[in-house]
Amino acid sequence: MCFCSKHLGEVPRGKAWALVTGSAKGIGRQYAEQLAAKGYNLYMVDIDEAITTEARIIAEHHSVKCVGRVMDLAVTDAARMLHSNTVREGYEFDVVVNNAGIFSHCDILKTPLERIERLLILHDYTLSSMCRLYGEDMLKRGKGRILNMSSYSIWMPFPGLALYSASKAFVKSFTEAFNKELRRTGVSVTAICPAGIATDLYGLSKSLQRFGVKSGILMSPQSCARRGLNAMFRGRSVVVPDWWFRLLIPICKYLPNFLIRPLRNFTMKWQK
């Protein structure tokens, strides 16, 4: 595996496998695309049936093997079932990207209990179980990389984001501790904490997404995936893309209520 700056993480084409969840579109699709460009065969998992088509497109474009599996990962036995299936099918993964996610912008007292359950299972239980199961496989082989999707919102526990921010804070803390447990084993775990990304996750129109990227408010999925993979292959524990967002963390954490109130009033119309 190459770790020079230009070809970070590259492998001989088709000689290693990567598992990417939530990879039918958005950031997950970019993780899959960029890993394929680095030579990885792909095992792509998504609740969206389009995953089989996207897997075929990537396979044809990059001349690698791509398997697309339709699966709901927001149920309690999802990680165990997925791991059991991939072991039975004979797959060994050098890279696992836990990208699948659900966005929720809604006051807790207005949030359906089903959404709370599914979001916490997907972001926290399934993710930590995936790390447990595939991390053990990697440890036996003495090598492997895991990338977990956290969020910049962990420093912004604003009204309406209580559920989402808390679930992503778990991901960051879990990843940091788990990565320390695996020190000097050849296996590393990385959490990326991006701010807003120009995808359909937040329900933004395409025009607003384009404006957000041009203005620097939003990051493109391509840029987010590239930075996440670079951090993962360098063995970093936590990464916050873009230096100006890192500088804003103290401000976000201690933003006074007199500024939060008008922000809340402005964003209430987008709660759902």
Can you tell me about this structure?
- This protein has 272 residues and is of the alpha/beta class.
- The protein has one domain: NAD(P)-binding Rossmann-like Domain (Rossmann fold, 3-Layer(aba) Sandwich).
- 47% of the residues lie in helices and 12% in strands.
- The chain has 9 helices and 7 strands.
- A 7-stranded parallel beta sheet has the order 3-2-1-4-5-6-7, sandwiched between helices.
- α4 links the parallel β4 and β5 (144-149).
- α1 (26-37) runs parallel beside α2.
- The model has no long low-confidence stretch (mean pLDDT 90).
The share of residues in extended strands comes to 5-15%
Number of domains: 1
Q: Would you tell me which CATH topology applies?
A: Rossmann fold
Q: Given the helix and strand composition, which structural class is it?
A: alpha/beta
Residue windows where pLDDT falls under 50 for at least 5 positions: none
Structure annotation, total helices = 9
